[in-house]
């Protein structure tokens, strides 16, 4: 924060979004859009921005390719917004350079794991109403999370009531595995589907056999109703 405050004192002559301040120091260009009542990410952020602060606004969604043109971006602050939805390709184009991504204090319940696992950035995900599920567990295991905030990733909702209100790290340390729950659910669904198809096949075979039996009985009755050759001879 002190670094951003220092950058504010140095003007940036190139184009800058109307609701933001743009500064530069030692070649590092910063776009500062904090507390500007923004409801979406500005479209005209300069391509050579290295630091981007969009914190304390009213942004609700991060759409696909929102930062794709910002290939030099190293730090992105989206904390203290109202973000509820993050698209799968939200951070496409910035994965190589991004070092820090702050998504803390939003309204995020779930996020496509592909959106975060493609990043090498240190992530801050604390203080969101997370639904503890397999995707979040995989992010917890595989992503680079900020160690200072990882304890504040809490289960707002969860498949089991005893996990609600607890830090996700504590839940996982206790032996919970949300991915195995999903796997069991998938296995049960596959079993039910296979059983349904099997039942349909059996029902079809039974109907087919019964239909043939009825046809056979009708044919036999028809043959019995015909005058016998002995009766014609008499």
UniProtKB/TrEMBL annotation:
Q: Which residues form the signal peptide?
A: 1-22
* Protein family (similarity comment): Belongs to the LRRC3 family.
- Transmembrane ranges? 188-209
* One term under GO cellular component: plasma membrane
Q: In what residue span(s) does the LRRNT domain sit? A: 15-51
Grouped into one coarse class, the protein's main location is membrane
Q: What is this protein called?
A: Leucine-rich repeat-containing protein 3
> Pfam families attached here?
LRR_8, LRRNT
What topology does the record note for this protein and the membrane?
Answer: Single-pass membrane protein
Q: Does the keyword Signal apply?
A: yes
Keywords attached to this entry = Leucine-rich repeat, Membrane, Repeat, Signal, Transmembrane, Transmembrane helix
User: Which gene carries the instructions for this protein?
Assistant: Lrrc3
Subcellular location as annotated? Membrane
């Amino acid at each position: 924060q002190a670094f951003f405050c220092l950058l504010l004192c140095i003007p940036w002559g190139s184009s800058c979004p109307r609701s933001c301040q743009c500064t530069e120091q030692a070649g590092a260009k910063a776009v500062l859009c904090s507390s500007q009542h923004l409801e979406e990410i500005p479209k005209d952020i300069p391509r050579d921005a290295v630091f981007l602060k969009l914190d304390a606004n009213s942004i609700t969604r991060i759409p696909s390719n929102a930062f794709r043109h910002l290939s030099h971006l190293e730090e992105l602050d989206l904390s203290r917004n109202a973000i509820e939805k993050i698209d799968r390709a939200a951070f496409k184009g910035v994965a190589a350079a991004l070092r820090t991504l702050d998504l803390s204090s939003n309204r995020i319940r779930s996020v496509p794991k592909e959106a975060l696992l493609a990043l090498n950035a240190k992530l801050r995900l604390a203080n969101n109403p997370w639904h503890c599920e397999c995707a979040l567990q995989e992010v917890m295991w595989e992503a680079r999370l900020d160690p200072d905030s990882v304890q504040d990733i809490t289960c707002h909702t969860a498949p089991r009531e005893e996990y609600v209100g607890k830090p996700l790290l504590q839940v996982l340390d206790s032996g919970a595995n949300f991915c195995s729950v999903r796997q069991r659910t998938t296995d049960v669904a596959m079993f039910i589907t296979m059983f349904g198809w099997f039942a349909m096949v059996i029902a079809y075979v039974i109907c087919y056999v019964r239909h043939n039996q009825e046809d056979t009985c009708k044919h036999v009755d028809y043959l019995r109703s015909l005058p016998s050759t002995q009766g014609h001879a008499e």
